[in-house]
Structures are given as structure tokens and as C-alpha cells.
Design goal:
Blueprint: E1 2-5, E2 8-23, E3 34-52, E4 57-60, H1 73-83, E5 89-95, H2 106-121, H3 128-138, E6 150-155, E7 159-162, E8 169-173, H4 181-189, H5 202-205, H6 221-227, H7 229-242, E9 247-248, E10 255-258, H8 262-271, H9 274-277, E11 280-284
Parallel strand pairs: 4-5
Antiparallel strand pairs: 1-2, 2-3, 3-5, 3-6, 6-7, 8-10, 8-11, 9-10
Length: 288
């Protein structure tokens, strides 16, 4: 968080990549059990948080894809924190860089960073565990963005264990395709999946990034291709063009290719046709 003025702060909210995602069958409580290795990466939404008169909580987002302000997770986070004793107002301007409906966790990250920032601005000083519990009440992914650079995420997303991943680079491609989570999970359920297959983090943490490609798995990839065929079209074009394994984060639609280093990424980016290149950027492991 950095000062923008005497009464305003700039806050960056990182995207995430599900490097692995194992999913189990639907539980009685309506959730699917997950086991995922998740890393925050260097693609950010930006929030400008300004002090406002007590009682004023508002959000402005120039990007129409973000939807109405009233339903935005960042505004809901601010309201939830004030109910915990926050005294003050806030005007939040959200500049979206993270694709909506892409499996990159932008909305959850915006909410987490709003909680984190207002906790300091309002002088609440709630401990991390309380912030995480409040975040979990807003969405399963929110606590992830209050934690370390990489985590193993289990349960419905609320059970988090920090892990130490080596630094990595990836070519991230965000197609202009909204891949709704609900239909993807419906397609997954239609496969009559067996019990959740746990993923051992040592399969990544104990090996160099150059050996990761064959170890990454996403149980929602095939259902996403079925529910949103455009995801498969983009993945196939990337694979054909680059000759590298293509992976999907979350329930889609964002795709990524692991890189040897940033120079490798620049060389691959130069091979992409214009429509793919416009949607591609290099990212790395977020350091915080």
C-alpha cells in the first residue's frame, strides 16, 4: 500500500494461478472438495482508496464487465469490515487489469486487499486470522489473498497451508471469453467423478520448474472445454503455435504456459499471431 495523497492510498490486488486443481464429487452441503496448489502472480488490479465522510462507502469501477457496484466483492468487504467496528468512510476506485470470469480470482483478491487496507486505514488492527475468517464469509478464495505467495488450498477453499514454491515465470493468456463457473461444475458433475485425489505439494516443491509440466493437473479442464468450447479452441491454437503444454487456471478461461525464463517468454510471445498476442502477458510468482 502506498500513499497517493494525504487522504488516499493505492493498493495492488494480485491474480492467482491454480497450478494444480483436484476436485471431488459434490458434497451434501453443496460444495465440491478441492485440493489445489495456488500461487499469486504479478498481474494486478489497482484500488485507489480515499477517506470519505463517516457513513459513506462507495465503489466506482470504469470497467462495465465488473458488474454493478452493489454486488462487487470489494464494496461488500468494506461493509463487512465496518460491521466489525470500522469507523470511517471510504471511496474505492477499482481499475481492473485481471480478466473477469477467467479463473484468476480478481474479485476475491480485490476483496482481500480492501479488507487488508481498510483494517490499517481505519486503525482496527484485526489479527490476520480474524481478517481471513471475515474474508471466508465473502467467498472461498478471499482468504487465499490474505496469505503468503503460494498455498495448498483444501476443503471448499478455506483450508490453507503455506508452501514454498521456487520462483517461476509463465505466459498467461486471457481469452476474451467468459467461462461461467456454474456450467463448468455441472459438466464436471455429469462425469460422475470418483473420490477426490489428493495432490502432494512435494511433486512441485521438490522439483525444478522445468519438470512441472507433466505434474500439473486440473480436473476442471475437460469440463470447461465441454461447457465453453471456446476455451478448448484457444488452448489448441496456443499448443499448435508454441508446441508447449498449455494449462488452465481455476474453472477457466485463462490459460498459461510455463517458461524456462522471461527471455523464453518474450521469444514465445513474439511467435503469437496478433489476436493471441493482445491477450498474452508474462507473469511471475508474486513475492508477497
Amino acid at each position: 500500500m502506498e500513499r497517493a495523497s494525504a487522504t488516499a492510498w493505492r493498493v495492488r490486488a494480485p491474480a492467482k494461478l491454480n497450478l494444480t486443481l483436484r476436485v471431488g464429487p459434490l458434497r451434501a452441503d453443496g460444495y465440491h472438495p478441492l485440493d489445489s496448489i495456488v500461487a499469486k502472480v504479478t498481474l494486478y488490479d489497482e484500488l485507489l482508496i480515499e477517506r470519505a465522510p463517516d457513513g459513506v462507502l462507495e465503489l466506482v469501477c470504469p470497467d462495465p464487465q465488473a458488474g454493478p457496484a452493489e454486488g462487487n466483492l470489494a464494496l461488500r468487504a468494506a461493509r463487512a469490515l465496518r460491521q466489525r467496528g470500522g469507523r470511517g468512510g471510504a471511496r474505492i476506485t477499482l481499475h481492473k487489469r485481471i480478466g473477469v470470469g477467467a479463473g484468476l480470482g480478481g474479485g476475491s483478491s480485490d476483496a482481500a486487499r480492501t479488507l487488508w487496507a481498510l483494517n490499517q486505514i481505519w486503525g482496527l488492527n484485526l489479527p490476520p486470522a480474524e481478517l481471513a475468517a471475515l474474508g471466508a464469509s465473502l467467498g472461498s478464495d478471499v482468504p487465499l489473498f490474505l496469505g503468503p505467495p503460494a498455498s495448498r488450498m483444501r476443503g471448499r477453499g478455506e483450508v490453507l497451508d503455506p508452501i514454498d514454491l521456487p520462483a517461476f515465470d509463465a505466459l498467461l493468456v486471457t481469452p476474451p471469453v467468459h467461462c461461467a463457473t456454474g456450467p463448468v461444475y455441472l459438466a464436471f458433475d455429469a462425469q460422475n467423478p470418483g473420490p477426490l485425489v489428493a495432490f502432494d505439494p512435494a511433486r512441485l516443491t521438490g522439483h525444478p520448474v522445468s519438470q512441472w509440466d507433466d505434474r500439473l493437473v486440473n480436473d476442471l479442464y475437460a469440463p470447461a472445454r465441454q461447457a465453453c468450447p471456446a476455451v478448448g479452441d484457444w488452448a489448441d491454437r496456443l499448443h499448435e503455435r508454441l508446441g508447449r503444454p498449455v494449462h488452465m487456471t481455476g474453472s477457466g478461461s485463462a490459460l498459461f504456459v510455463l517458461l524456462a525464463d522471461r527471455q523464453d517468454g518474450l521469444a514465445l510471445h513474439a511467435q503469437l499471431p496478433p489476436d493471441l498476442a493482445r491477450c498474452a502477458r508474462l507473469v511471475g510468482l508474486n513475492p508477497w
